[in-house]
Amino acid sequence: MIKDYMGILNLNENEDNIKPLTVVRPLASIPIGGRYRIVDFILSNMVNAGIENVGIFTKTKSRSLLDHLGSGKPWDLDRKINGLFIFNFGQMSSYSEDVDLLKTNMEYFNRSKQKYVILASSDMICNINFKEVARSHQSSGKDVTMVYKNIDDGISNFIGYDSLNMDKEGNLSSIGKNIGREDNISIFTGILVMKKDFLVEILEKALQTGSAKNVKGYVKKNFKKMSINLYKFEGYLQCINSITTYYKANMDILHEEVRKELFYKNGLIYTKVKDEAPTKYGEASKVKNSLVANGCIIEGEVKDSIIGRRVKIGKSVRIENCIIMQGSEVREGAILKNVIIDKNNIIDISKELIGDRENPLVIEKRVLK
Questions:
Q1: Which position has the higher pLDDT, 127 or 13?
Q2: Can you spell out the DSSP letters for 162-177?
Q3: What's the CATH number where 139 sits?
Q4: Element (H, E) at 196
């Protein structure tokens, strides 16, 4: 059944509140969990379900993303038939416009032999079983399946995301926005399932009438004219649309139960393989509840933090609740707490950087003097 599905990842995402990390890269290629990129989760979810044809629509500043994805080999998508297809559509005036982009590449849809499409973006971190989603969609016989999750922290999380309101029978009655007024709400994950022909029909109607500039927007406006199936996702879900939510997602990964679910429950999460030496720990080093990638040199103290590849942490350094990205160096005597250090930064001797758990300090990709 799943062989008849293709995946579409639209990476034209809202980066307004996470710009310190997207100056030189799209949201999808931001490092997460020490050795992964954000896009790895949704892409691995599709591959684990058996989807062999995935189209990724990205925009400018995509060099790091293209370098990361390559031919798709880590996800077994370097194929003669089907495989990974990347479409770069440039910088749009609005992050949400995708109707024109998809319609412009209609040849890709026409050549693909799959009958069904799963549309998603990369900003929702989860490990979802798309086989179950596909089974639910086909057994329902409905036009569109929308994947949602009931959350209990809507006042502080998932702000600005679409929320689904249902009647007593569990049918979709309206679609709104989470404005942070209630904790218990149903959040739309942005994942849509439909027949490929129905997607083409949406694109044509949206262009003809000018009623919507993106597929999700068209479904939101016209869901009462469609038959909608709702699939309830029960697992861990975290949106990444701001520095705060990015930081929270990384800190959540430090919890064993979250880590086991995200990286193992419905299949492994794959990423680009890099050959590095094992991390070297000095005699005075102390590491507690942290994820440390390979190729590092640790001589100081690290607690509740995520350390990327080839990071150097000097003697007498104290790091707590931090994210240190690849190639950075924290020199002797520095103190870091609640800080995000982007790639290739150098934190000088005895430098003290203190952020807040709700608003962590971000050091962009540059060198501190």
A1: 127
A2: EEEEE-TTS-EEEEEE
A3: 3.90.550.10
A4: helix 196-209
